């Protein structure tokens, strides 16, 4: 008796282990030193096996029985007749026949359980047939690889079983065995392979990470089968997930509905489901088509899944047999090939049409042209035909369907990649250094629309916002006229203007009527005509201007503007001057 086998014989429950094979039935019980065996064969029925074993071990004492069966076992029940034995095994009551508790497991799985010593192990039993099992981190999973197709219409067992050995001869049989072992080890990503069965040692040269197992390991597996911590893991019943899935879907639909409906003013201004511009309408129609198709697929697949879960759930009176398996259906295969093809084809056509509709638009003669330059982390906005320069707040006229007035945007970057995106007015467009991209918007309703840099561009990416004000034609003309006015030169704030002109402010900012001609920061000529500063990160108030001048990092950490280190009086004078720049 091997040391490993002896170590499994502990005081307590006495186990009779029966290893049923195609040529012999081998038995060993707790406390016994030598195994016994009886001839089996294609005529052996389960009743005959029980009778033969009970006679063979009449002088042994045992409390429970482990059976290694050469066929498919599911949840401890035999569900398929063996290939090399007689009939009647499915449904046979071994507990009644032995008068003892009985646990049944696939024979290869039982030997695998006895051969396991950690990690991820593949076991292959090369005997009359081909047994297989895998153990991962102590969890045993029997497999039925024997009757899967291998080559030339034959199965793995036809090549590696006893019939294959006789048909091929030892040399060719060994060659096929090495190939199959290597392929299966790679398929299940096993750390090592253990070979069992009477024909295992006929393989003279083993593949890498492959070892011979001892046939006595089957008895170790039989003893371990009654240990709760080493018994094969029973499949847990699936937890009810349909209800949870329904709740999640309803929550998503509710969120999408709320977003589309607007909810708050901020949410509505960022919703793609509330378009207010011609290109945005085209994109929304395309998104609705894709969402509709995806929702239909989800409902069909989810409905079929829910039906199958409910209709074919496990019931108390189930006998544990595997249901009939159907392999191959021309109708089903044609359906799941053609339906996705048609869906993809339709979506491709719709997407192509939308791309040409949005990106192929030609500017009409009365279109407004605007150049937008992305900086870290603000937007420079130029109106080259109007002679207007501003920052972070884009002003455009509303487009009348009778006389369309779209706004065409030329997008450039001064440093890194940004992305221009105003969800309700159009799609995203990247803003790339050394490259000019173009897009357009055609707002159909006056109002305020919020935008955002949609490409990570540094630490203050989230605070690189954009506000688009859509005016009536008359109001837009008034705004342009105001922006063309010279900067305020009120005498009462002359001291503040001198502070501005004598500090480093003039190196980065421009301001008409002064020596400031910088281009690294926003133009300040009409600073107070804007609702926000810091690219939408703060309201444009005297208090926020003072805080920004004193310590830019306090409002926008990582900002490129340095702290001026001015005294309190200089700061007050500078702020007083800036607040006059209407």
Q: What is the topological layout?
A:
Layout: H1 3-7, E1 15-20, E2 24-29, E3 36-39, H2 46-56, E4 64-69, E5 73-74, E6 77-78, H3 94-98, E7 102-106, H4 107-115, E8 120-126, E9 130-136, E10 139-143, E11 149-151, E12 154-155, H5 156-160, H6 162-168, H7 170-188, E13 192-196, E14 210-212, H8 217-224, H9 242-261, H10 265-269, H11 278-311, H12 330-359, E15 368-375, E16 378-383, E17 388-391, E18 393-397, E19 407-413, E20 418-420, E21 429-431, E22 437-441, E23 447-452, E24 465-471, H13 473-483, H14 494-501, H15 505-508, E25 532-533, E26 538-539, H16 542-550, H17 552-555, H18 568-578
Parallel strand pairs: 1-4, 4-7, 8-13, 13-14, 15-19, 18-24
Antiparallel strand pairs: 1-2, 2-3, 5-6, 8-9, 9-10, 11-12, 15-16, 16-17, 19-22, 20-21, 23-24, 25-26
Helix pairs in contact: 4-8, 6-7, 11-12, 14-18, 16-18
Explained architecture:
The protein is of the alpha/beta class and 582 residues long. It folds into 4 domains: 222 residues, ATPase, nucleotide binding domain (Nucleotidyltransferase, domain 5, 2-Layer Sandwich); 107 residues, Helix Hairpins (Orthogonal Bundle); 116 residues, Cupredoxins -  blue copper proteins (Immunoglobulin-like, Sandwich), CATH 2.60.40.420; 88 residues, Cupredoxins -  blue copper proteins (Immunoglobulin-like). The chain is built from 18 helices and 26 strands. It has a 5-stranded mixed β-sheet with strand order 3-2-1-4-7, sandwiched between helices. Strands 10-9-8-13-14 form a 5-stranded mixed β-sheet, sandwiched between helices. The protein has a 5-stranded mixed β-sheet with strand order 17-16-15-19-22. Helix 6 crosses helix 7.
